[in-house]
Amino acid sequence: MKYTGSCYCRAITYEIDLASPDDARTSVCHCFNCKKFTGTENGITAKIPRRAFTYMTGVPKKHESDNGSGALLTREFCADCGSGIMEYGAHAGENTYVFHGTLDDPMNVLPPKGEFFMKYKAPWMPEIPSE
Ligand SMILES: [Zn+2]
Ligand SMILES: [Zn+2]
Questions:
Q1: pLDDT (tens digit per residue) in 15-35
Q2: Cβ count within 10 A of residue 71
Q3: Strand partners, 75
Q4: Measuring CA to CA, which residue among 1, 38, 2, 6 is closest to residue 103?
Q5: Ligand 1: distance of its center to the CA of 28 in Å?
Q6: What is the mean predicted confidence (pLDDT) over 119-128?
Q7: With 80 as the cut, is the pLDDT of residue 99 above it?
Q8: Side-chain half-sphere of 129: how many Cα atoms within 13 Å?
Q9: For the residues 87-111, what does the mean pLDDT come to?
């Protein structure tokens, strides 16, 4: 299965090539790092093997910080429009976490299967049914 995506200004485009949609696990994260980085209530990312992801156009800017969590996190984003493309921590291993909203068909592919950091979830956010 191939999935394409891009940043908001489309300077950066990418392709994800998975043997099966089950090779991705999308989740909703309510932690404060995700709130700050996305500027919204949560971050939705699809965890995939890093080797399945290829940048087709553009080169992302990288930001590295532990942001107080104690674990080094790298975020790759478009330096022109600011869209977050992916993030991966020191403990991500062979995986990376792609920001789900950058997929070209986010309403229909790789839906979330769970949530993280529920204690930071805003009381007005509905719960995601988990699998
Ligand atoms: Zn952009
Ligand atoms: Zn988070």
A1: 999 999 999 999 999 998 899
A2: 10
A3: 63, 87
A4: 6
A5: 23
A6: 90
A7: yes
A8: 1
A9: 94
How far, in Å, from the CA of 60 to the mean position of ligand 1? Answer: 9
How far apart CA 108 and CA 76 sit, in angstroms, is 24
Is the CB of residue 11 less than 8 Å from the CB of residue 78?
yes
Q: Which residues surround ligand 2, an ion (CB under 5 A)?
A: 29, 31, 34, 43
Mean pLDDT over the full length of the chain? 93
Asked whether residue 131 carries a pLDDT value surpassing 70, the answer given is no
CA of 103 to the centre of ligand 1 (A): 13
Structure tokens at 105: 């068909």
Q: Which two tokens stand for residue 7?
A: 């940043």
Chain-centroid distance of CA 98 in Å reads: 3
Give the angle subtended at the CA of 111 by the CAs of 128 and 33, to the nearest 5°: 65
* pLDDT of 130 over the 90 cut: no
Domain boundaries defined on the chain: 2-120
- Cβ-based neighbour number of residue 8 at 10 Å: 13
CATH topology of domain 2-120: 2.170.150
pLDDT at 41: 96
